[in-house]
Amino acid sequence: MTDARLADLADRLPNLRLLTDPADLEHYGRDWTRRWTAKPLAIALPSEVAEVQAIVRWANEHDVAIVPSGGRTGLSGGAVAAHGELVLSLERMNRVLGFDVVDRTLSVQAGMTLHAVHEAAKEHGLLYPVDFAARGSCSIGGNIATNAGGIRVIRYGNTREWIAGLTVVAGNGELLHFNRGLVKNSSGYDFRHLLIGSEGTLGVVVEATLRLTNPPPPSQVMLLALPSMDAVLEVFALFRARLSLQAFEFFTDVALRHVLAHGAQRAIEGDHPYYVVTEFDADEAAQEAALATFELGAERGWISDGVIAQSEAQAAALWRLREGITESLAPHRPYKNDISLRISALPAFLHEIQALLEREYPHFEVVWFGHIGDGNLHINVLRPTELSDADFIAQCEHVTKLLADTLQRHGGSISAEHGIGLVKRPYLGCTRSEAEIALMRGVRQVFDPKGLLNPGKLFE
């Protein structure tokens, strides 16, 4: 605490937890990208909204940049503090604030993990439906900052659809309440939706009112082995037309190999280039329809093999084959692309991009998986052992520029659900026009006049 600025902050907020130990600076100053050296000034861990306001006002007085921090599970460098910023971690603000039985809303602090929100909703017999593999460590504030999607977007949509209200500390320390849980509100601009997906650049989300829904009906999980990417799209169209899908996730044989090496159990014998885990409503009629649909897909040559879960344990084991991919790849420190397109644009795009990746990555292992039901693909490139990190990233960034150009021609986005952060900042112009980016800069200037909130993220 020899820094006079930190001494002043500690004097103003004597109960604030403030960390400066080198191990803490490294831990809180980075996210899953691991590409930047963490160099924050300090880590502030407030426990109440008033402390967040005081921290932001202090930052304005001392011209200290702030990096809002949740679970730091991001993959785009959005939570990186590499230039002396103060990391404002909301992990201690992790409580349920209230449940409204009539409105069926749950009000929470932004530091709650997604898993904790799921459990809180379950206590009231309801469901918060946004879900993905990092549920145990990601925070609601981070989900809001990136408009997180996950494995059930096909049924429930993204985070945006489930936010009824937000409490936000703006760049000047002012406390703002957006929408206040209303279902209908046509009283001007809905700033709530500006904050969703803004990556901490417009304000610090401190509280959220979440909409809940009824738990889904009993479901059935099926694993399918498919002969080609074209078959994946044909099977999706077939299953979507005949079943009430909750999820439809695909992955490749390369992805499966890594998950099996990481401890998962093989469910289908033999080698197949593509796999799908799908979950659908499973009353008696739906189960009969599912078997008939499977048989029709097999007759048309789109399905090579398949297995249907006979228990909750088997269903979890099948889901592990998909949800365990990111963890199984983590030791390889992959270079990740997270892209999206209209589903109708996928066939033409996939043929073009497969050729591009084969041409540009002849000696690299490329792992595909994603949410085919909402047009979101994850491309993971693994570094060959003989390449340095710097050379590997340089080659990958060259290919990402080509990928971004291809996405632009097909009307896609360089970021589906992980945000822009630092990693994708050079390619924002392939998804947004110059006019749009100018408007984004103007909005940011209004909410954060001094540019202290998560500087360098989204754009310079």
Automatic annotation (TrEMBL):
EC number: 1.1.99.39
Cofactor(s) this protein cannot do without: FAD
Complexes and interactors: Homodimer.
Main EC class the enzyme belongs to: oxidoreductase
One of the protein's GO biological processes: respiratory electron transport chain
Entry coiled-coil feature ranges: none
Alphabetic keyword roster: FAD, Flavoprotein, Metal-binding, Oxidoreductase, Zinc
Highest rank taxon of the organism: Bacteria
Family: Belongs to the FAD-binding oxidoreductase/transferase type 4 family.
Catalytic activity as recorded in UniProt: (R)-2-hydroxyglutarate + A = 2-oxoglutarate + AH2
MF term (GO), any: FAD binding
InterPro entries named among the record's database cross-references: FAD-bd_oxidored_4_C, FAD-bd_PCMH, FAD-bd_PCMH-like_sf, FAD-bd_PCMH_sub1, FAD-bd_PCMH_sub2, FAD-linked_Oxase-like_C, FAD-oxidored/transferase_4, Oxid_FAD_bind_N
Pfam families: FAD-oxidase_C, FAD_binding_4
Residue span, FAD-binding PCMH-type domain: 36-215
The protein, known as: D-2-hydroxyglutarate dehydrogenase
